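Reproducibility note. Readers wishing to regenerate the assembly model reported in the main text can use the exact inputs given here. Chain order matters: entities are listed in the order in which they were concatenated for prediction.
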Amino acid sequence: MLSMLEDSLKVKSRALIILLVAAVLCASNVVSKPHGLYPQSQTPAKALVERLGYPPDTKLLIVHADDLGMAHSINAATTKAFETGLVNSGSIMVPCPWLLEIAAYARANPNADLGLHLTLTSEWKLYRWGPVLSRDHVSSLFDNGGYLYPTESEAAAHINPKEAEAEIRAQIERAKSFGIQPTHLDSHMGTLYQTKELFEVLIRVGRDNKLPVRIAREQFATHPYLKDLVGPNDVVIDNVISIEPSVTPEGWSNYYVDAIKKLSPGVSEMIVHLAYDNEEMKNVAFEHPNWGSEWRQRDFQFVTSDSFRDALRANNIKLITWRELGKLVR
Amino acid sequence: MLSMLEDSLKVKSRALIILLVAAVLCASNVVSKPHGLYPQSQTPAKALVERLGYPPDTKLLIVHADDLGMAHSINAATTKAFETGLVNSGSIMVPCPWLLEIAAYARANPNADLGLHLTLTSEWKLYRWGPVLSRDHVSSLFDNGGYLYPTESEAAAHINPKEAEAEIRAQIERAKSFGIQPTHLDSHMGTLYQTKELFEVLIRVGRDNKLPVRIAREQFATHPYLKDLVGPNDVVIDNVISIEPSVTPEGWSNYYVDAIKKLSPGVSEMIVHLAYDNEEMKNVAFEHPNWGSEWRQRDFQFVTSDSFRDALRANNIKLITWRELGKLVR
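Running the prediction on these inputs yields the following structure tokens for the assembly.
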């Protein structure tokens, strides 16, 4: 009897342990999320605008200039545009030649909303840069010429994600060593969204640094793994305004005004590329009209125009920065 | 007797061996040159102009633009000045951001007289560069910010000559990998003339690559070790024309015209720094007026002026390039 009881207890306790383990696994979602760190079901129902304390029909917009540090022309035009108060955010490319100029600006303007435009590509023909780390540590990041790969697809095809992680952590450290306190992270030319493994790196480094990462809901359709990897505490913006090569120079202002008019409620980011169309920028962008020198001058002209200010006002758009979004991830 | 004779012969033969060894050592100058590779007495009496096949009273001049590759403004102004035919030589800074633009020029103009301006310093405030090799290999070349040291004296005080040698050999290899076939070597900001050990590196790398190195007779007074290290097959130019910060903007043209008028016979080099005084160059040279943006525009204006052409003609000056001098060291 005693031994039967013992056996029965053993069976019961074994069953209990199995049940307990299963319960714990379910609760922690270890078994229910084979593809990611956070399952879809855990995404909070609350919209990002509501998490920020605004009514759900609010239209919030970050006006963000990419590529700071890449060239003097870009630094000069972007910091000039910051003076309008309408362009209110930007991100910095740490490996680029003009880093120290924008770092000096960041130190002199500690409230500026400046993030890091993590850089794993070097896209121009005559003006290029390599990574922060050396070939001994991140050999997969180097092309044959000893620079970063020119396109995001070549970069994604060759880069070892562990080396990408070491490099972007080194870029963050280097930025901080020059007094830049980044408010957010994004990825130059979108290289870190190109594969699941690279995006895991970006999101992990963002979380470790308690920094929001540029992720837009619209990316979920083209990059399905993004959705699986995003968790309830991450920031996912609702809309992006970004001009495309198909827009003619004459249609530039209309494109933006129209996009602002059609903007849905939620948190949106308008991504612009500002520079003066001068000798430096023309030659940086040698034989590369898309996102080139005239393109950037057109962007500068629009964001510093009355049309832009009027469009924001007429459509009841409220500006917000990554610094404010960052409070959600800390 | 026999044994005495043997002893005597032994003594004599020992004395003979000692004498022979001494004679050989003297003839090869091993004992008479404790400080250098070639003693002064071996310097050939023949002047450099005569080695080049010209009468000793000939005035030969290289008009040389430094700092190619450093900035687009410098590349653009210098290659424009090359079109006059009066500026007929230049040297390239391999670690700098605009290397690929001047490398493309070098490939398109294979007869251009382009050397390497070996670079161990990075002198500006907001626009800097590091070495070609990584910290793992040449840690003594890096300042605290991860760039090359800003001045030649700081660089010379910190640099391990072995690491300097590895770096400048890597700069030569990198230049060649982009299709630059250097005609000569010199040293940005003169860092490689600052100590005997660094100059030994420069002269050894020049000889190994069968390239002439910029050495001017006037340097012997300020850097005595140069004379000891220079050999009969090296090229030592006779005079240098190089403008100084004490010259006023108004006196610029007069300084050069006067220097050309007073030029002694022999092989001379006029070293200029050309750029357009534009937004890029003004900001490269931020808070650094000497050898700055306006300075370089003044140099550009002089070397492309009729005054310069007239002064060369009036003083019977014949232009020569480093390519021609290089034939003496091959």
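We highlight two features of this model. DSSP finds 15 helices and seven strands in chain A. The two ends of chain A are 59 Å apart (CA to CA).
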